[in-house]
From TrEMBL:
<dbReference type="GO" id="GO:0009653">
    <property type="term" value="P:anatomical structure morphogenesis"/>
</dbReference>
<dbReference type="Pfam" id="PF00102">
    <property type="entry name" value="Y_phosphatase"/>
</dbReference>
<dbReference type="InterPro" id="IPR000242">
    <property type="entry name" value="PTP_cat"/>
</dbReference>
<feature type="domain" description="Tyrosine-protein phosphatase">
    <location>
        <begin position="1"/>
        <end position="149"/>
    </location>
</feature>
<dbReference type="GO" id="GO:0048666">
    <property type="term" value="P:neuron development"/>
</dbReference>
<protein>
    <recommendedName>
        <fullName>Protein tyrosine phosphatase</fullName>
    </recommendedName>
</protein>
<dbReference type="InterPro" id="IPR000387">
    <property type="entry name" value="Tyr_Pase_dom"/>
</dbReference>
<dbReference type="GO" id="GO:0004725">
    <property type="term" value="F:protein tyrosine phosphatase activity"/>
</dbReference>
<dbReference type="InterPro" id="IPR050348">
    <property type="entry name" value="Protein-Tyr_Phosphatase"/>
</dbReference>
<feature type="domain" description="Tyrosine specific protein phosphatases">
    <location>
        <begin position="66"/>
        <end position="140"/>
    </location>
</feature>
<dbReference type="InterPro" id="IPR003595">
    <property type="entry name" value="Tyr_Pase_cat"/>
</dbReference>
<dbReference type="InterPro" id="IPR029021">
    <property type="entry name" value="Prot-tyrosine_phosphatase-like"/>
</dbReference>
């Protein structure tokens, strides 16, 4: 878990050496927070938007891809519509950081070339920074996140309560859940069983990696 370097309340200050950080705005979501900081350094000031993924490196709570899709899409919109640089960091700067970067690169490649070469993208990442995405779980997670981003079903809540329970809408949602229930089977295989105690975390198999990659490849070719 990274040390928090920002004030905890709106319009309060946090001093870090010669730099002062003021929290201007904060929006809280289920798995991430978005903050706006005003940064002061000497006679300079700058406004920064801060996306905080609540992904503790000591837990597996964010291994479900749908939990990360909103943040990944948020980053993608910034990279598509702005030249402002993005800084991504985590505790060691390799697994969680690498996962987000690899997802963004893969989505950019899918959009530009209608295909994704995860191996090539990760190889390029590791040539720039060793040990990026060095766990199989994170490597598979990038596949699942990208697949979810490309296939996600938008289901905004409608003003009319009856419209939310329209039979066609429900059928569409159930079909979507059925098509993606294999996500759960893969992710659950990484988690320890509740009993017996002290059970070690299971690791993904090579077969699972091939299965995920083939599903993603089939999706891109079909488009």
């Amino acid at each position: 878990m990274c040390v928090e370097y920002w004030p905890q309340q709106l319009n309060t200050l946090f001093e870090c050496g010669e730099m002062t950080i003021k929290l201007i705005k904060q929006e809280n979501y289920e798995y991430h927070d978005i903050r706006i900081f005003e940064i002061y350094y000497m006679q300079y000031s700058r406004r920064i938007k801060h996306l905080h993924l609540r992904w503790d490196s000591n837990t597996e709570t964010l291994f479900y891809p749908n939990a990360m899709v909103p943040a990944v899409k948020y980053i993608r919109r910034i990279t598509e519509n702005s030249v402002v640089p993005i800084l991504i960091h985590s505790g060691f700067g390799v697994n969680r950081t690498g996962t987000l970067i690899l997802c963004d690169l893969a989505l950019a490649m899918a959009s530009a070339e209608n295909e994704v070469n995860f191996y090539g993208l990760m190889k390029n990442l590791r040539e720039q920074r060793p040990y990026m995405v060095n766990r199989m779980e994170h490597y598979l997670l990038t596949h699942l996140i990208v697949l979810e981003c490309l296939m996600e079903l938008e289901t905004p809540f409608k003003n009319s309560l009856a419209d939310n329970f329209d039979s066609n809408v429900i059928k569409q949602q159930l079909s979507y859940v059925k098509r993606f229930n294999w996500h759960d089977r893969i992710v659950k295989s990484w988690s320890p069983e509740p009993s017996p105690p002290n059970n070690k975390l299971l690791t993904p198999t090579y077969g699972q990696a091939i299965s995920v990659a083939s599903k993603l490849g089939h999706l891109l070719k079909s488009n």
